[in-house]
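Issue 218. Parser rejects a valid record. Input:
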Amino acid sequence: MKLIRLALLAILVAAGLAAVPTTAMAAPAFQMPIPCGLRWTTASHSGHASQWMIDMVDLGGNTRGTPVLASAGGTVSASLNSSTGGQMVVIDHGDGWQTRYLHMDRRDVAVGNTVDQGTQLGIVGSTGDSSGPHLHFEQKLNNVVQQASFNGHAVPLTWSYGEHFETSANCGAGDGKFWVDTFANAPGYANPGEGASTGTLNKGTSYVFCRQWGPEVRVGSSFNHWWLKTDLDSGPKNQWVSAYYLSRWGNDEAKDNAGRDIKDCT
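Output the parser choked on:
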């Protein structure tokens, strides 16, 4: 009987009267949409159309201005200013998967751009229908909001900030960027430690591309010989700042926020 049913199904498919059953494609390896090592709290609220839409903030007060990163690689399908979503970006990841990033203060990508996991899409803000700085984030499959997952685990449903925290493992390996925290504004140079400063890398979370051994920077007992290639916040791209300004590590160390050695420049 089973063989008869299979044969009949084959005839119907060939005639275009039936479709072969399909299963949902596996989700991309989503990561948090904020820089590597940051620990933010996530929650939903009653105003969301779906309980699986999540908002996220830094309870330490550093929410606004944080880079918003692509949770997975894909193509930008929308980049617009919405009356409700504010400055928002949508990425299509293929196989029906999509992510949405809302309420940003600034968008850094345009429709049609191809992005890698970790590519900066904008900065966190409070535009549109928003009562304060936060990032609204959605993962969708075939246009239906799903329970979000980061780094291979599901984000639990909570209704208030402070009940659940996530630490980002969106560490930029896909696009050659390493995310680091600096404790002060760092002067940039065209060559490691040489000539006049060409601009500034602002205090906070930024990306760097690689490291190179060079002239020592020392203040008291703190010192570092590593120099990091980066794009300055004020000044040109592909400049150098001292790893002395890294917040998380000690003398003559140049690691990203996840504790990985930043690759050597070639």
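Fixed in the parser; the record now loads. Helices lie at 2-14.
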